[in-house]
Amino acid sequence: MSRLVPSTVAGSLPKPAWLARPEMLWAPWAQTGALLEESKRDAVRLALQVQERADIDIVSDGEQTRQHFVHGFLERLTGIDFAKKRRIGIRADRYEADCPTVVGPIARTAGVHGEEARFLRSATARAVKFTLPGPMTIVDTLADEHYGDRAKLAFAFAEVLNAEARELAAIGIDVVQFDEPAFNVYMDAVADWGLPALERAAQGLGCKTAVHICYGYGIKANLDWKATLGGDWRQYERTFPLLAKSKIDQVSLECANSKVPIELLGLLAGKDVLVGAIDVANDRIETPEEVAATLRRALAHVPKRHLIACTNCGMAPMKREIAYAKLMALGAGAALLRRELA
Ligand code: ZN
Cα–Cα distance between 139 and 136 in angstroms, integer? Predict the structure, then answer.
């Protein structure tokens, strides 16, 4: 992480068809039992190889071992009934999902991702990032029959997330990132309990902490929602000053083909800014020059030592060859800007 304008990914990469059904969220696994476990490890090796070939500095496991970025963490906690799924509207009814139900006190009786994190750490010499869902986004992706209060439930998750994140840091993970797409849906609640719960989750970690706040994957429901937001997405105007005051080290957001006014990045003074320079909502491969141009626009508002090149969002629902080509463009675009700044 020592070179100027390092690069990283928001988190997920597409899964190979031999691991899970391609181009969909919550995709069913293509294998079972020991073969599934072996396939997951092979898919992580492949995800790392692709990122290394693209010269990405801070790599992830591409979330190859999880079916979904929220439910993958919840599966091993107690207090949640996965057999009791309810179809609910999530992200303020932007789309519906079959969500498990909170039926008792949330507890983490054993580590969740430790084994996967150890494998990731051992499989690459590069700096590694591990992603966890943020408390507010977890609360927004569940049915609740026990707590009856979203803030209380968020703090229950913040406790278990903190224990998990501490274990990840101790394993040697360099960046723990919390994904909070719910942060620009419930603007008042972010200030009231969303950010305090996130800070609790990230408290006292021996590694860098990041938050990914975003307008969602490139799926139709999100594209339709973005079309209603007008020509100027100012949601972050309220969130960024709060994040700037927080103890979170890094903020990840979408800037490629995004209507977020770029000057809003100036509200994140003191933070590393992961500038999304790869659009995950279309199949057109960016050129390295386009990637560099997006990063350069951000440089007017973010000091160069705080700039990190990134993808807009997770790439899970994309076609593999498209996602891989976009990663190559990301690495090449960051290199282009680095040469310019040298
Ligand atoms: Zn995202």
Answer: 5
Structure pTM? 0.95
Quick one: how far is CA 82 from the chain centroid?
23
What pLDDT does 230 receive?
Answer: 80
Buried b (16+ CB within 10 A) or exposed e, 261-293: ebebbebbeebbbbbbbbbbbeeebbebebbbb
- Tell me, in angstroms, the distance from the centre of ligand 1 to residue 81's CA: 26
Span from the CA of 214 to the centroid of ligand 1 (angstroms): 4
Separation between Cα atoms, residue 8 and residue 327, nearest integer Å:
9
Alpha carbon of 97 to ligand 1 centroid (Å)? 17
Alpha carbon of 147 to ligand 1 centroid (Å): 27
| pLDDT score, position 24 | 81
What distance in angstroms lies between residue 102's CA and the mean position of ligand 1's atoms? 24
Question: 3-class SS at 158?
Answer: helix
Give the C-alpha separation, 82 to 73, whole Å. Answer: 12
Q: Is 33 exposed, middle or buried (0-12, 13-18, 19+ CB in 10 A)?
A: exposed
Domain residue ranges in the chain? 33-341
Other Cβ atoms less than 10 A from the Cβ of 133: the count is 26
- Residue 109: helix, strand or coil by DSSP? coil
Q: Which fold has domain 33-341?
A: TIM Barrel (3.20.20)
Q: Give the pLDDT band of residue 40 (cuts 50, 70, 90).
A: very high
- Beta strand extents in 91-188 (DSSP E only): 95-107, 127-133, 143-144, 175-179
List, for residues 145-158, the tens digit of each pLDDT value: 999 999 999 999 99
